[in-house]
Structures are given as structure tokens and as C-alpha cells.
Amino acid sequence: MTSTRQDSAAPDSAAPSGALFPNAGDSGAANSDTASQGMVQLLDQDGVLGTDPDFSGYVADVDAQMLRAFYRDMALTRRFDQEATALQRQGQLALWVPLRGQEAAQIGSGRATRACDYIFPTYREHGVALTRDVDFPQMLRIFRGISNGGWDPRENNFHMYTMVLAAQVPHATGYAMGVQRDQAGWDRARLEREGTAVVAYFGDGASSEGDVHESMVFAASYRSPVVFFCQNNQWAISVPTRVQSRIPLAERAKGYGFPGIRVDGNDVLAVLAVTRWALERARRGEGPVLIEAFTYRMSAHTTADDPTKYRLSAEEQAWEPRDPLVRLEKHLRSAGHADDAFFGEVARAGDEMAARVREEALAFPDPTLEDSFNNVYAEAHPLIAEELRWHKEYEAGFAQNHAEAGQEDAR
Amino acid sequence: MTTMTIAKAITAGLRRVLEQNPKSLLIGEDIGRLGGVYRVTEGLQADFGEDRVVDSPLAESGIIGTSIGLAIRGYSPIAEIQFDGFVFPGFNQITTQLAKMRARSEGRFGAPVVIRIPYGGGIGSIEHHSESPEALFAHTAGLRIMAPSNAHDAYWMIQEAAASQDPVIFFEPKRRYWLKGEVDTENPASPAASAQVVRPGTDATIVTYGPLVPVALAAAEAAAEDGRSVEVVDLRSVSPIDFDAIVASVEKTGRLVVTHEAPTFGGIGGEIAARVSERAFLSMEAPAIRVGGFHMPYPVSKVEDQYLPDIDKLLDALDRSFAY
After folding, report:
1. Residues B66, B67, B69, CA angle at the centre, nearest 5°?
2. What are phi and psi of A198, to 5 degrees?
3. B172/B206 same-domain check
4. Does this model's pTM top 0.90?
5. Is-contact A134 A158, C-beta < 8 A?
6. Domain limits for position A398
7. Nearest by Cα to A160 from A66, A228, B297, A168
8. Across the interface, do B97 and A181 touch by the CB < 8 Å criterion?
9. Are residues B226 and B315 in the same domain?
10. Chain segment B232-274, per-residue pLDDT in tens
11. Residues A393 and A330 in one domain
12. Are strands A226-232 and A198-203 parallel, antiparallel or unpaired?
């Protein structure tokens, strides 16, 4: 807890130097720069564990068992993603939003949160959902046309997905403003022990939305306990990050007056460390942090997307060696923390999970339009009542016709 | 009974909300230290503190978006948008998030936020300060829309809005802010969803709400001099609309004029005319007539008098109805 980064309130002390990215943005290749410079990294792409003067201390408790658990989380997330993609291809889902490549960013950050923390995801945070024990099959209700919410956010403090990009970011800030009021008068010890923080997830594309800007202004002004977690996966559908920003996104934080930090988003340990740091800071009342998790969307934007139209396979291949699962597997094997038996068991657990996901997703009962009527308002509403009454009578008329037709046939 | 202006009645209503609900808070631009550009929140920050009467950054989407987050956390935010024409930077948050939160959560929870908006013209102001965007919000399911026309209703309806579990857009008739009226702080007004006959009559019905209620009453008074008994119905709630009350009135009078400052095309008046024709066609002696704004951006103030519905336009509409 003695590093300059976490103890300094000076916003620029935690931001990576822009000079390290002098040419960022002049070509697509700049975004794919393989250098780890300027990013917090603990586990390099060969799986070799390094140290960081500021952040190693935040993962000092991580032992072999926890590392294996992170691998398992990431592998299950990838298997879920694979199964959901297959379900979409088989016509069982209207759409799917793949996250392959972003598992470390999501598991590392999600595992940094406490149960009392509240998460506002965008719509690709299936890995974060796993860390919050959201039931995977329930999540498919959104993509199967059954529900626009999917799960009950109050059970896991994991908010519903929001499809309008960045619209959930001010919600996160407002929620954090409520947390501040609930925790008014708590001393530092109690804040560290019981305090709640909020995480807002968004991407490099959404970072251009005005709602992100306004949220950062509010959170900075009120020093609200919210962590802005930006997964820079290099592509907003077909548009590269350089069209969203001419500087590393993390550097934008300086303009708002709070720390911004770029972390290797494919390094689960580094993401865990940085997010823990940011959450602890927020919890103590030191205000927001912007984390830019530098990662790569290895798959399509959605199952309706075709990345071959806008990016080169050479770029995709360049990112393959930095696959977050491969990296952690290399480390686990070389450190002697896991062997074939472990990886075989994880694969089997993934297949079992996938089978359950498929079975339950296909068994969900269809909703009724009456449910839709009932969920518009909390309190009685005469127009809803009138239209629902009409709808039921109209539908009942068909049932009556069918019954009469049946009687005709019987004669 | 106390005599208050509409503005001060809203202040008193807000004060009561802040006193009674510790989770309630006000948020908006200039509402704290200054008390709002119309002074509707005057004195409240001094009495309830900066955490409950929050001076926000100048960002309407942020005001509404953070209010939604506060509501999800269990607070009851009452946001102020400084002028009608400035609600649009927050329109996305209202229509895609606030209105849909309960539907999205499958009825598990909503975001009970109140958005106060001083609205309407007739104040001789510059662009964006005189608009009536209520139809845009009425077209959005999930929102409730209230528009008080007098001090007593203003006092009680703002409290009703604050207590509602649904989001409410609360349109305040800004050119009537200084209109005085009796407020009975002991006996609540009837719920906003019920329209009120504010002047009984037998020959024709004028339906309106908000700033045009006094205009409709004056037109009815003038018509009475010609021997015509005109009933005036104050909607109070623009969504939902109390169609039963309107239909009951038209079944009695046989003639309907609907008036609002908002443009006629695609407006609330068209919805009312259509509903009445569906439910009371055989009671009608003449087609429903709408008197509203023209299909143009709200005009410059030098000519706004020609744009706004006034007594003469309402009398002309009544003449057309009686001559049909």
C-alpha cells in the first residue's frame, strides 16, 4: 500500500505516459501494438509472471488455487460463448454477442468486486456475469426474445444489459451518488470493510458517447465511488479505436481530474490488481478511476457481423498468441500449478455446463403479451387496462372461432 | 386555506416531500444556491442541505441518467430541467431508459423519477424557452405526465408525482407561475388521473390543461354573454387521460373543442378527438375542433401572440361548432 500510484490523489500520477504511444492512431497497426509498455502487466504473453512496483501487492494473496479458479472462470465463459454462438447459428437465438478474447478483462475485474458492489454492464459482459453468479441460461432469455432484462439484478447486484450504448454509465454514477449518501458519516475503517463501490462497463466505441462524458463530470465533481471500466477491444463493430480517440483512452481521465490507467486486458492478474486498486480507492471516498483494459475482440461484434469486411486476418493472427486463456494455461503448466488432468476436468465441466445451458434455454416457456401489458407501469393505468381488456377479448374471439370450427368438423 | 402563487405552491409541495421522505432529493441546474431560475426551489438547499438539493453540472442527460441510478439505489429523485426546450439532451435517457426500466426488468422494479419542466410560451422569451413537448412524452409508454393549472393542484400533484412508483414528467405552466390561488394544505386534491370540470356548462365542452385553463375559462365567460353555456374540463393528467370524464361531458353538451399550446398536428387534441368520436359519436352535434399551435418551430416572441391559442380563437372554434 505504499506505491505512489494508489496513494496519490494527483490524477496524472496513475496515468500511463502518452509519450509511450506517440503514434497511436495513425494506422490500424498502432492499435495492435504488441508492446506492453504503458500498460500494467503482470503475466506476459508467454505466461511468465513479472512484477509491478505498484500493483503486484494487490494480488499477493493469489495462490495456485485462485489462479486455477480464474482459468476455470475464463474457460467456462468461453465455452458458454461458444454454446450461445452455436445456438444462434441453429436458429435458437435471434442474436448473440460474442466475447472471445475479453475473458481476462471480465473475469479479472469481476473477481475484484465484492458482493455488495453494483455492476452496470453493457451487453457483452457474460464473463463478469459469471463472477456474479448470474445463471447463464437466464441470460439467453434476452437473445431468445423472451425478456428484455433476462435476470433479476437485485439478486446479484449485476444490472440488466443496456443496448443503448453508454446509457447505463450515468446510471452507475447516480447509483454511486446514492451509495455516498447511504454511507455518509462512515469512517475510513468502515468504508474499507463494508463500503460499496460501483462499476460501469463500456467499450472503446461507447467512450465517444456524451453519456460517458457527462458521467465522468458528475462522478468527478461529487467524487462518487464509481469505477469506469472501459474494455478497449480495438473495434466498434467495423470502426477502429483510432476513430474514437487520438490518445489512449485512459488518458482522458486526466481531463476530468481523476486517475486513468491502461492495463493489459488479456492478463487476468493485472486486471484483477488494477481493479482492486480502483475499487479500494473508490470505496475509501477518493473518487472515480478510469481503467482502460487493452484487449481484443477475437470474434465478430455480433453473430450478424462479418469482420472479414473490415479487418485483416493478419491482425487477428497477431492477437492469437496473446489469447488470455492460452497465456494463463502456459503459466499454470510452467509453474506446475496445473496438469492435463486439470485442463481435462475444466473442459468436461464446460461441456456439462453447455449442455445444461442448451437444455434450459430451449425449455424456457414463451412469455405472453399480457405480461408486457402488466410491466409498463407499477400503478393502475386506465389505458393499459382498456387495451388489455380489448386484447383478451379479441384473442378469445379466435378461441371461440376455433371451438366452433371444431364443432363443425365434429359434425 | 392559504393563498399562494403556483410557483410557491410547488415550493411548498416540494418542501413537504423533502420533510416526509428522507430518500427524496432534488437535482438540477442552479436549483440550490440560486433556488432555480424561477425560484421554485428557493430556500430548500439552505434547509435540507447540499446532498438533498443538489446543484448539478450543466448536463441534462447526466441529470436524468444519474437520477435513474439514484432511483435504482432506492432514492426518489426529483429532477428539474431548466426550460422545456432543454429537455432534449436528456430525451434519450427518458425514452430509452426511464420509460422502459420497469418493462425491461419484467416488472421487478422501475425508476420512480420525477422530472419537473417549466413549459409553454407567452413569456416573450428567446428560442427554446417557450415550447410544449408533452405529446412526445405522452407517446412514450411507461411515463406519466401531469400538468397542473392552479396552485392547489400544483401543491398536491407534485406530492402525488413524488410518491408515484412510476416516472412522472411534471409540466409546470411557467407563464402562470405567479397566478395566485387558494391552497388547502389539509385536504388533498383528487388524484391527477381524474380530470376536473372547472366550469360546468350544457352547450359545449372545452378540454384543456396547464396554462390554457385560465384562457378557456375566460372564453367560457365571454361565450356566456352570448347565451352559450360552455363547460371547461381541466385534464390535469396528460398521460393517462381521463377519457371517461371527457366523454361524460360531451355526451351532455354534444360539442367539443380541445386546446393546447403544442402544435395541433400529432398532438394530444387529435387523440382526444379520435377517442371521443369512437365513444360518443352519436352524441356529437359537430366534429371535434382542435385549437393548437401551428406546424412550425415555436415562433419568435414578437409574433407568439398570433401563434398561441387565445380567447378569440376559442370563441371562433365555438362559433364553428355551433354553426355546423
Report:
1. 60
2. -125, 145
3. no
4. yes
5. yes
6. 369-410
7. A168
8. no
9. yes
10. 999 999 999 999 999 999 999 999 999 999 999 999 999 999 9
11. no
12. parallel
Q: Which residue of B has its CA nearest to A222?
A: B56
Domain containing residue B53: 2-183
For residue B271, which of A299, A57, B279 has the smallest C-alpha distance?
A: B279
Cβ neighbours of A167 in B, within 8 Å: 65, 92-93, 96-97
CA torsion B254→B260→B264→B269, rounded to 10°? Answer: -40
Residues of A in contact with B72 (CB under 8 A): 159, 171, 174-175, 178
Tally of domains in chain B = 2
* Closest to B119 in 3D by CA, of B105, B129, B110: B129
Number of domains making up chain A: 2
Residue of B70, B89, B142 with shortest CB distance to A174: B70
* B32 & B95 share domain: yes
> Among residues A275, A241, A333, which one has the least CA distance to residue A111?
A275
**pLDDT block averages, 10 residues each, chain A of length 411:** 35 38 37 59 96 97 98 98 98 97 98 98 98 97 96 97 98 98 97 98 98 98 98 96 95 98 98 98 97 96 94 95 97 98 98 98 96 97 98 91 72 61
B237 and B125 share a domain? no
Q: Domain end: B129, B154, B183, which one?
A: B183
Is residue B72 within 8 angstroms of chain A, CB to CB?
yes
Domain co-membership, B167 together with B36: yes
Instruction: Please say whether the dihedral angle defined by the alpha carbons of residues B31, B33, B39 and B44, taken in this order, is positive or negative.
Output: positive
Q: Please report, for the domain that includes residue B205, its CATH number.
A: 3.40.50.920
**Are A333 and A394 part of one and the same domain?**
no
State whether A312 and A393 are in the same domain.
Answer: no
The x, y and z cell numbers of residue B105, run together, are 426488468
